[in-house]
Amino acid sequence: MTADLPGAGEQILLVGLGNPGPRYAGNRHNVGFMVLDELAARVGGRFKAHKAGAEVLEGRLAGHRVVLVKPRSFMNLSGGPVAGTAKFYKAGPDGVVVVHDELDLPFGALKLKLGGGDNGHNGLRSISKSLGTKDYYRVRFGIGRPPGRMDPADFVLKDFSTVERKELPFEVDRCADAVEALVGEGLTAAQNRFHAP
C-alpha cells in the first residue's frame, strides 16, 4: 500500500467546502461543493442530513470506503461539522481530504498537498482549529485573483464568469478525477498526474 494514501486504508472523509443555499450555489467559493456533487454522481446515492451538521453520502471510490461530506454551516464555521463527522466515522486527520477554492492558483489549476497553512482561507482555518492540526489533505482548485482592486472576500462570493462557466464542468470533472487518484493511488502519484508543469 502506498505510504501517502489518505486514511491508510481506514475510513476516508472527502469534504467539499462551500456556503449552503441556492444563493451561493454558483459562487467561486462553492467549487468544493460542485466537486463533491460530481463525486456523488460517481459513487451513486444521495446526500443525507447528518447530526454533525453536514450532508453525508457513504460509498466506495477507487476501491476504498469513503464518506462524502458537505458542511451545512457557512464556510467560516466548517470546522465543527467536519470534526464532528470525522469523530462519528472514526476518521483521523490523515483520513480527511478537503476540496476548496484557491485564489493563488489560476482558474482550473489544481494542487494537492498534505498539511500547510490556511493562506487566508477561513474554511481551512476553521477546520485546522477544530481538528487541532493542519495535517490533513487538501485539493486546491484555482479560481484566480480578483480583477483590479476588488476585495477578495467579494470576489469569492461572485459566480464564475461567462467564459469560466463554459470550462467549469470540465475542470470540476478533472478535480474529481484528482480526488479519485489521491484516494486510489496516493498523494505523489496524484500530484504527478494533475499538477501543472
From TrEMBL:
Record-level Gene Ontology MF annotations: peptidyl-tRNA hydrolase activity; tRNA binding
Biological processes per GO annotation: protein quality control for misfolded or incompletely synthesized proteins; rescue of stalled ribosome
Role summary: Catalyzes the release of premature peptidyl moieties from peptidyl-tRNA molecules trapped in stalled 50S ribosomal subunits, and thus maintains levels of free tRNAs and 50S ribosomes. Hydrolyzes ribosome-free peptidyl-tRNAs (with 1 or more amino acids incorporated), which drop off the ribosome during protein synthesis, or as a result of ribosome stalling.
Site positions for Discriminates between blocked and unblocked aminoacyl-tRNA: N19
Protein name stated in the entry: Peptidyl-tRNA hydrolase
Organism whose genome encodes this protein: Amycolatopsis rhizosphaerae
Assigned keywords, A-Z: Cytoplasm, Hydrolase, RNA-binding, tRNA-binding
Lineage: Bacteria, Bacillati, Actinomycetota, Actinomycetes, Pseudonocardiales
Major location (coarse): cytoplasm
Record's subunit section: Monomer.
Gene name of the encoded protein: pth
